């Protein structure tokens, strides 16, 4: 495309970036002064990104078998979520944040094979369109590290798979455990910031508070639910194209080795 069009004329769409909870990450990070000081290696223990599906490949064997979980959802959608969670703040409009995401992706350390797991659910070979000797993964999990000042030493865990016990796409930022307090009988649980993308879109802050009537703490969830606020993703993104709003566009080199086209695991355009 770049041989025939200027970059400003190209709008790369990843429908995950257009989902309301994903779009909200940047606003929560940079619009709240209490968040930014704790969004780093000093306070964050780990980041977990999960895309669990409780169904199989179904009638998509011809598409899925040459692709697998890693290429279907990890190298595009889930890496883009890391970009939203971990990229530095920017100025200068939408192009600036895309540039910061590209900078972040370039800081991701090559994956150690010891930190990469592949699996295949039992009945995958019975799916129409799947090769009888297929080694295609329907589950994958990996641990990444971002080699920059903010995230040095913080593991980013990604996992995606089919025929799992539940359906959930979410991001969990897990904060370091607070020190033991002498007036409490046990060590406090960790705080978490959770972005729920599917099937119940929203944002949770997991905090600790006093247990009523007891000398102990309890877990409290502060929830923001998006179910009544959702706008159809494709409709919004096509509207952005018509208005020349490139804020959610992937941009040049948005994900190393990323692909365009095809269909995501939820059936929408990838």
UniProtKB/TrEMBL annotation:
This is Glucose-6-phosphate 1-dehydrogenase. Residues 248-270 have a biased composition (Gly residues). Residues 2-20 form the Glucose-6-phosphate dehydrogenase NAD-binding domain. Residues 240-270 are annotated as: Disordered. Pathway: Carbohydrate degradation; pentose phosphate pathway. Residues 28-232 form the Glucose-6-phosphate dehydrogenase C-terminal domain. Keywords: Carbohydrate metabolism, NADP, Oxidoreductase.
